[in-house]
């Protein structure tokens, strides 16, 4: 079946960059923790910085609740009830590009029917079961076995491949859950909080259209602005792969315009799995809102590859310490624990090897006993 894929990490960064260039303020690691409703309108939104203890408040004209699987939780803060179907799905990341294009099984949507080549890996998906909450992302061993069994019927090489990582997510579905549930979306309002718009349902493929409909509604409510034009303009800087040298062309493909801020004369590689340069990490840290090792990983891919950061996280941390004052141990432990969750569901030799590697790292760097 004809299909395509995108890099969700780059897509998010491109959206943020575009929003910033249009005047938006982006607050990384901040949560909405409460809303005050007065006279049928949200008059105050409480925000907490999850990495610090700082709290602040925003006095809004309009509030857009685009919290995905958490849309009901956020709406509830303003006393609005949105019934959503939550559906858990598991994915498996395999080492190496086992196919050169998306392979999708030609049958009605089902479990384990897609293999997507992604950078240095191949992602296998998906499964579907009712989820108890947006946090219910646990991947069962049966999910992993099913994904390998079903996708290897299309790509036999997957049977002998190394699994790098598993992960789960929760689909936000309007109404009920499951494969048959509608993937349509709706913008929901409530008389009790008339300046709150909740955008619920949809898919990633419909996200731009969802944003267009919401942006037009917001402009209508504010009585300003021309209609949305994002369907006419390419998102963010063009990632055209042009450059005066092979490294520059590669960086331009990866980062678009931001590539010009990366010093290509420093060719030291910091992450050998994903061939990330030390200078890429430096440039990302200079941009300001990458506060954790996972933030750096999502922007550069350092730590996302075969070794899952066990070989490069200390080097990335060293660059972080050069760039700013941080407490290194909590950052490292937080990162390694999160990576560990992704491979801990593997079994057999692979799990044994992963645990050995982890203990070696902890022993060499004196992290034993740290929980
Ligand atoms: C296994 C699986 C496979 C999928 N496959 C596909 C596919 O093939 N094609 C496709 O088009 N779609 C697919 N989807 C659906 C797609 O991933 C979602 O529709 C999409 O990610 C929703 O994006 P979003 O930005 O609306 O929500 P999210 O990506 O969930 O983002 C919501 C954000 O809100 C934040 N948030 C929550 N609460 C708060 C709060 N109180 N304060 C501040 N922030 C908050 C969350 O941290 C999160 O970052 C899949 C989903 C899953 C789980």
Describe this structure in words.
The protein has ten helices and 14 strands. The protein is α+β, with helices and mostly antiparallel strands and about 375 residues long. The protein folds into three domains: about 100 residues, 3-Layer(bba) Sandwich (FAD/NAD(P)-binding domain); about 90 residues, D-Amino Acid Oxidase, subunit A, domain 2 (D-Amino Acid Oxidase, Chain A, domain 2, 2-Layer Sandwich); about 100 residues. Strands 5, 6, 7, 8, 9 and 10 form a six-stranded antiparallel β-sheet that branches. Strand 7 and strand 8 form a beta hairpin. The longest helix has 17 residues. It is globular and about 60 Å long. The structure holds flavin-adenine dinucleotide. Flavin-adenine dinucleotide binds next to strand 1, strand 5 and strand 10.
List the helices and strands and how they pair.
Elements: H1 8-21, E1 30-38, E2 41-49, E3 55-58, E4 63-65, H2 71-76, E5 84-95, E6 103-104, E7 114-118, E8 121-125, E9 129-130, H3 141-152, E10 163-174, E11 185-190, E12 193-201, H4 207-222, H5 246-255, E13 269-271, E14 276-277, H6 278-286, H7 293-300, H8 313-323, H9 328-343, H10 348-364
Parallel strand pairs: 4-12
Antiparallel strand pairs: 1-2, 2-3, 5-8, 5-9, 5-10, 6-7, 7-8, 11-12, 13-14
Bound molecules: flavin-adenine dinucleotide.
